[in-house]
């Protein structure tokens, strides 16, 4: 009797192929690409992801996490986009010897807060009570100076 599958021929192919495997072998269709490719190629693939996707991918499995967390190159380009907002903070972290990922995480939120202030999002705030919760973080004196100048120009 012949197996008839209403889904697709690929499901039958996968089932037939899996049944012919030697015990202990993994079906090539089910194999993790990071285990078959050189690490450099996996890093190249991961480098196409944005920060949010990269963080999600690092949660997929231990092997992906090891590659993503262990590659400073993956975080560098994302960190350089934050550099435009918080140059002093990024340069300071790099001088201290922080990894690109640590630098990115430490300065991303500062960059968001600074950008909101400079774009006038908080221009209508008259007291500390008016500041939305979870919207502030410590900023350096020079950043506050830039924010004050922007507010005075408005």
Automatic annotation (TrEMBL):
The record, for Gene3D superfamilies, names: 1.20.1280.50
Return the Pfam families for the record: F-box-like
Any GO CC annotation of this UniProt entry: cytoplasm
Q: Which PROSITE patterns match?
A: FBOX (PS50181)
Where does the source fall among the domains of life? Answer: Eukaryota
Q: Which PANTHER family match?
A: F-BOX ONLY PROTEIN 48, F-BOX ONLY PROTEIN 48-RELATED
The pathway this protein participates in, as annotated, is: Protein modification; protein ubiquitination
**Which residue numbers delimit the F-box domain?**
31-78
The organism is: Sinocyclocheilus grahami
Q: What is this protein called?
A: F-box only protein 48-like
